[in-house]
């Protein structure tokens, strides 16, 4: 299958190793992966700030770069959700529709499309799993505690395939970290308090790392950890799944 790798702009600028790990992981699992070199921002920051009408250039460029692929995969739930719900191109409406229906978050793709049952990876550390809101509540990557339904978690199922990992969930397993895109800018104090609450639960579990499917949430938590002088580190799930035996 022809897979295009979509790397959100903040990952490209701040966490390039996440993009590299995603590429290597997909190739290890037998995918023919392409990285369109002219891809840019999907337009989510503008849309979140109330300027969705100004993201038409981003939409057109996204369609230009990602048309013709069987699947588009990204290590970011929030950016994938934005593309799924908002990508439009007046000049290429059918292409835009096809892309909206074929873009996947990484763990979603590994679970639902590739149906991965084995990951040849090893990560001998205590790891706390953070469920990002976009992935959990909109992409259905994991169950929500307020709904009385059978519990599931696609990221957790994949992490359980990693050798020697000790995966520990916080008590409030699906609570927001406070990042929320522009929310952390406009409501800084509330955002930081929410992040500190998340970290305190992971710290109580004595974890070495906090992982998740969104580098944006992990970046928010990483900033708080660094200001605290905390020994806990953050790591994207792609880096764990791609770790060497």
UniProtKB/TrEMBL annotation:
One of its GO terms (molecular function) is oxidoreductase activity. It comes from the Bacteria. Coiled coil: none annotated. Pfam families: CCG. InterPro entries: Cys_rich_dom. Signal peptide: none annotated. This is (Fe-S)-binding protein. It comes from Flavobacterium nackdongense.
